[in-house]
Please model this.
Amino acid sequence: MARIVRPSWAIRCVQSSCRELFEVAILEDGKQQEVVCPKCGEHYLYPVLPDDMENAE
Model:
């Protein structure tokens, strides 16, 4: 029987050849973390903060 060790979110890799769905831990408000897709190695920074969205435009 499995049990929840920590709250988590799921992230889907956006690489068209991968599309892997993997879990990441929920972080405190205002904190970000870099994660790596376990299948293809693509790096992601999550969660996306409003400031990051403005800089991406």
About this structure: The helical segments are 50-56. The chain has one helix and four strands.
